[in-house]
Design brief:
Immunoglobulin-like; alpha+beta; 2 domains; 11-stranded mixed sheet; globular; Copper(I)-binding protein
Length: 154
């Protein structure tokens, strides 16, 4: 009789998990299926009010990075850098497209995360926590929580 009760409880638990997962997908918030590699935050100096973070993003489906935040900065923005008429121009982007199966590299001199209003300098060896939000083609928002290592500039 104890075995039947255990099987019944397991079946109920499995049903609860399936319903919970379905509800999370229906509500439009899920764990992002975006792979992150080569991630780091540039070490900064005392008194420096801005910083930058770099990483490579990959996804099996078309995604768009729509929001980024960290507790270590008052404001975080997605930026691009391009050369125009011999002058390097940096621009704020509202979002960044991540095409299916094509890595998008955020690197010095290219796309990057710009960190404003730093509370304290980033020191090599630290880890900085980030929340990244992505949107899929259906408009569902997915988020990913990551810790990036702080490194000196290469």
């Amino acid at each position: 009789m104890g075995t039947f009760r255990g099987m019944k409880n397991s079946a109920i638990y499995l049903l609860q998990c399936l319903l919970g997962s379905t509800l999370m997908l229906w509500l439009g918030v899920a764990q992002a299926d975006v792979a992150i590699s080569d991630a780091w935050v540039r070490a900064s100096n005392p008194g420096q009010s801005v910083g930058a973070a770099y990483l490579t993003l990959r996804s099996k489906e078309d995604m768009t990075m729509v929001y980024v935040e960290t507790e270590r900065a008052g404001n975080t923005e997605i930026h691009s850098m391009t050369m125009q008429n011999g002058i390097m121009k940096m621009r704020h982007l509202e979002e960044l497209a991540i095409p299916a199966n094509q890595p998008v590299k955020l690197a010095p001199g290219s796309f990057h995360l710009m960190l404003f209003e730093l509370g304290r300098p980033f020191k090599a060896g630290e880890q900085v926590k980030f929340r990244l939000c992505f949107k899929d083609k259906a408009g569902k928002i997915e988020e990913k929580f990551v810790s990036l290592p702080v490194k000196a500039a290469p």
